[in-house]
Design brief:
- By secondary structure, this protein is α/β, with parallel strands linked by helices.
- It has two domains: 167 residues, Periplasmic binding protein-like II (D-Maltodextrin-Binding Protein, domain 2, 3-Layer(aba) Sandwich), CATH 3.40.190.10; 90 residues, 3-Layer(aba) Sandwich (D-Maltodextrin-Binding Protein, domain 2), CATH 3.40.190.10.
- It is built from ten helices and 13 strands.
- The chain has a six-stranded mixed beta sheet with strand order 1-5-2-6-13-7. Strands 10-9-11-8-12 form a five-stranded mixed beta sheet, with helices on both faces.
- α7 packs parallel to α8.
- The longest helix is centred in the C-terminal third of the chain and has 16 residues.
- The radius of gyration is 19 Å and the shape is elongated.
Length: 287
């Protein structure tokens, strides 16, 4: 079985499965009930730059803007639930899509940023994964002064300070690649963007993160960072499609959202959202 990067393992290992709502509680429902209610409740990950995060009181990010467009496509208002990821994506689907959290927060009508993968879908049949809108992967960025050549093979980085989000796939990659020769050089940060900004500040020579995180940070740090052009040697993850999830009894809602996503991609509105955050919109790949 091909491993599927999920929010927990790919980006951050933080405990708990608490859903923090920023809007009144709303039950996940089929399409007719959602329309009658007048609001589409949307689950997004908390502290997940550039997809969904807070600056002051403002919730912003690619998934937030896309969620607002999806609600508008149904002539509904968008309301957001911020999710702290659980142990794996199955826990996130359980808490955000089909059961609700143990703290009493009801599930959302739709959850953003779920890997759209056949094996993941088969293992989580209470949720329907659909509407893929982006192809994610991993890459590296290097400090222009400390490590100007970002195309080198991993052993050439021995002795260099390397940055990654703690307990993430980039962390595991740097710690194990080439027989673990770089393990002692890996420095840990609370997020991918934090690792990248530390590299820009000269606290590390290079960082590995998701492609979206690298491109987003490069938008403001291009003078101090250079992005790797080639693939990461021996990176096992081939990339993955990112889409949405609805409850298994909300397939009619899922169908409408999937159609809306396809239209928003076709008319360039999705690419425009990505561009505002410095991220290149990459089309999905058929699995």
């Amino acid at each position: 079985m091909r491993p599927v990067p999920d929010r927990r393992t790919a980006l951050r290992a933080i405990g708990g499965a608490l859903l923090l709502s920023v809007v009144p509680r709303a039950m996940a429902s089929p399409l007719d009930k959602v329309i009658a209610r007048g609001t589409l409740s949307i689950a997004v990950y908390r502290d997940f730059e550039p997809w969904s995060w807070r600056e002051g009181d403002e919730l912003k990010g690619i998934d937030v803007e896309l969620g607002e467009l999806l609600a508008a496509s149904l002539a509904l208002k968008a309301s957001f639930i911020e999710l702290i990821p659980g142990d794996d994506v199955a826990a996130d689907l359980r808490n955000a899509v089909w059961r609700g959290s143990l703290t009493g927060q009801a599930p959302a009508d739709v959850m953003m940023h779920i890997p759209v993968d056949r094996q993941l879908a088969l293992a989580n049949d209470r949720a329907v994964l659909l509407g893929a809108y982006y192809r994610e992967g991993f890459t590296m960025a290097c400090n222009r002064e400390r490590q100007s050549d970002c195309e080198v093979l991993p052993p050439a980085l021995k002795g260099r300070a390397l940055a990654a989000e703690i307990d993430s796939i980039p962390d595991f990659y740097l710690s194990s690649v080439s027989g673990g020769v770089l393990r002692a050089d890996v420095h840990h940060f609370p997020s991918g963007p934090a690792a990248l900004r530390a590299t820009a500040d000269g606290k590390a020579d290079a960082a590995v993160a998701t492609r979206a995180q690298v491109e987003h940070v490069m938008m403001t740090e291009r003078a101090r960072l250079v992005q790797r052009k080639g693939p990461l040697p021996m990176m096992l993850s081939p990339g993955w499609n990112v889409g949405v999830a609805v409850k298994d009894d909300s397939r009619d809602l899922g169908d409408r959202l999937e159609s809306a996503i396809a239209q928003l991609i076709a008319n360039g509105k999705v690419a425009a959202i990505f561009e505002r955050y410095g991220v290149v919109h990459r089309p999905t790949v058929e699995s």
